[in-house]
Structures are given as structure tokens and as C-alpha cells.
Write a structure and sequence with these properties.
The structure is a single chain. α3 packs across α4. The protein has 133 residues and is an alpha/beta fold. The chain has a single domain, classed as YqgF/RNase H-like domain (Nucleotidyltransferase, domain 5, 2-Layer Sandwich). One of its GO terms (biological process) is rRNA 5'-end processing. Its main location: cytoplasm.
């Protein structure tokens, strides 16, 4: 079974999925914030997902700010609605790293905006997968 990785932004949620062996993460899609409870069940069934990891945006000192509290509320809602284990993973600087990767790939600003959330989800999921081995 696969693991689903989520990077929750203010307007969009980047989605990544692991391979069946849980070794690598691949970007899957981006969904609009607010549509996660209708879109995620379809993705979970289609991709045979058994657990979810959500990026938790901690402050640089490790404390949790308002955005992190929002993410914790969302993870609880996902647990209740989807009936799957939902973990959080420290996502400090993953969006910055995703932007850097896309800049190095020489993507235009418009194209970067389209894939940065998905790329950040890949980084979150890959970090989680690596930490569980």
C-alpha cells in the first residue's frame, strides 16, 4: 500500500504518492483548498493509499504557529473522515527548497507556480519515507 503526502498551502494542496514499496515519492496533482474531503477519497481509492503524511509548518525555533495549528486541525479532520492513519512531518523550508529546485530546472515563473505545491509535497513525502526506514 502507498503513502500519500500533502503540502497544504493557503489556496492549494500539493499531493504526492509513494511507490508500492514506499521507497520513492512522485508528484501526483494539486487540488484546491476546501476540496480535499471530496478529492482525497477518490485519490486514496485509486492509488490504494494506506496512510497519509501532512507537512507541518513549524517555526524555525520548533514552535507551532497559527498555520501549524490549522494543519493539526486538518489532520484530525482527515483521520476522522478518511479512517486512515494521518501523520505530520516537519516541513520547514520545503517550499523554499521546491522553489530552488524549480529555479535550477529553469522553469518560468508561471510554470513554477503550477508545480511548486506538488514538488513541496514530494519533498515532504520523501523525507517522511526516508525517516521511517
Amino acid at each position: 500500500m502507498r503513502v500519500l503526502g500533502l503540502d497544504v498551502g493557503t489556496k492549494r494542496i500539493g499531493v504526492a504518492v509513494s511507490d508500492p514499496l514506499r521507497l520513492t515519492a512522485q508528484g501526483l496533482t494539486v487540488i484546491k483548498k476546501g476540496e480535499e474531503l471530496t478529492e482525497l477519497p477518490r485519490i486514496i481509492e485509486q492509488m490504494e493509499v494506506s496512510e497519509i503524511v501532512v507537512g507541518l509548518p513549524k517555526n524555525m525555533d520548533g514552535s507551532l504557529g497559527p498555520k501549524a495549528q490549522e494543519i493539526l486541525e486538518l489532520t484530525e479532520k482527515l483521520r476522522e473522515t478518511l479512517q486512515l492513519p494521518v501523520h505530520t512531518y516537519d516541513e520547514r523550508l520545503t517550499t523554499v527548497a521546491a522553489e530552488r529546485i524549480l529555479l535550477e530546472a529553469d522553469l518560468s515563473r508561471a510554470k513554477r507556480r503550477q508545480v511548486v505545491d506538488k514538488t513541496a509535497a514530494v519533498l515532504i513525502l520523501q523525507g517522511y519515507l526516508d525517516s521511517t526506514r
